C-alpha cells in the first residue's frame, strides 16, 4: 500500500480532494489517515485489531483553521492521538462529539451508504462536491440553523449554472469578445452574467429546480446521520421548504406526426435507438444496456433502475417485429442496440444525433432524447375520443411512481377529462 506524506500543510495541499483516505503508516498495524474534501480535511486512524482493521475519525485538520488540540489537530497532535492506544480505544467505543461531526462527515457517511445501495452515485457525489461541501462542509451539523440553510438554498437559486471552467452558462450570460487575441491569434471572449432581475420565468424555475434537488441530497445525508445517532435534533433542516412549483414544468412531447418525421430524418445510425425509445418509453441508459436475452415473449425486461424495481414492458406488434430484427443473428448476451460499426452506445452519444434529427425535422426548439419517453407516455394517456391507458398502467410501464406521472402528465389527464365532461355530461335543460 502506498504511504503518503501528510506531515505538512504544503504536502497535503498537493493532494487532490477524494472520498477514500490517504494513509500513512506510523506504527505496525497503525495508520494515520487524511481525507480531503473541497473545503476541509479530516484525520483518521486505522488500527489492525481482532483480525481486522477498525477505522475511526479523530479530528479535523489544521489546514484552514488553527489547531486547538481537541477538535482541530495538527499532524503532530493527530499522530500522538493515533498512537496512544488508550486514547484510540476510547475513540473507537465512544460516539463522536457533536462539535466534531460536520456536514462533510455526514456527506461522506451518506456517500458510502449510497455507493452500496443506490445507482446514481457519481451524480450524487458531484452534487455534493459542487454545491454542498464548498459552503457547508466545515459546519458542525449541531450548529446548523434553519436561516443558514435557507440562505444557502436562496443563493443556489439565484446563482447561474457554471461551465467546467467556472464561467456562467448561457442563457444566464452572454459570450462577448474582449477585443484581445490569445497566443495563437484567435479572439478572446468573456462571459457577462445577466442580473437576476433579467432572468426569464423559465430560467428562474430551472435554477429553483436545481436548488430543490441539491437540498434533497443535503436532507438525505443529514437524515442518514440522524438515523444513525450521529445527530440529536433534525429540526434545523426539516423546517426548510423547497421552492413550490419549480419542479413541475409542462412536459414537452412530440405529436405522432412529429415523431414519425423525426425517425425519417434521423441518421441510419441513430434511428434504431430513437425508435426503440418511442416503442418502449425506456430511458436512454436502459436501452444502452438491453441484451438479446431481455427480449422474450413479446416484451422487454428492464433490470431495476431508478425505482429499484425491475419491470416488463409489453410491446405492440410493430415493436415485436422491430426487436426481432434487432436480435436476428445475435447471441443471448449481445447488446440489442449498437452503433452501425458495432461499438456500444455510451453516455451523451445520443445528444448530437438527436439535435440534428430535430433540426432536419423542423422541431424547433430541438428536444432532448428524454422527450421520446414523455412522448410514449403521453400518447398512451391521450384518449383522442376513446379511453386512454390508465395513468397507473403507464406508471408501471415506464418505471415511475403514480405520483411522478401525475406531476409530469397531469395536464394531459385534465385536458381529456375536460373533453369527456363536455361530451358526456347532460345539459339538464337550458335554464
Please characterize this protein's 3D structure:
- The protein is built from 16 helices and ten strands.
- It is α+β, with helices and mostly antiparallel strands.
- The chain folds into three domains: 86 residues, 2-Layer Sandwich (Double Stranded RNA Binding Domain); 133 residues, DNA polymerase, domain 1, CATH 1.10.150; 167 residues, Orthogonal Bundle (hpI Integrase, Chain A), CATH 1.10.443.
- A five-stranded mixed β-sheet has the order 1-2-3-4-5.
- A hairpin with a 2-residue loop joins strand 8 and strand 9.
- The longest helix is centred in the middle third of the chain and has 27 residues.
- The termini are far apart.
Poorly predicted ranges (pLDDT <50, ≥5 residues)? 89-95
Structural category is alpha+beta
Largest sheet composition: 5 strands, mixed
Looking at this structure, what is the CATH superfamily of the largest domain?
Intergrase catalytic core
In what order do the strands lie side by side in the largest sheet?
Answer: 1-2-3-4-5
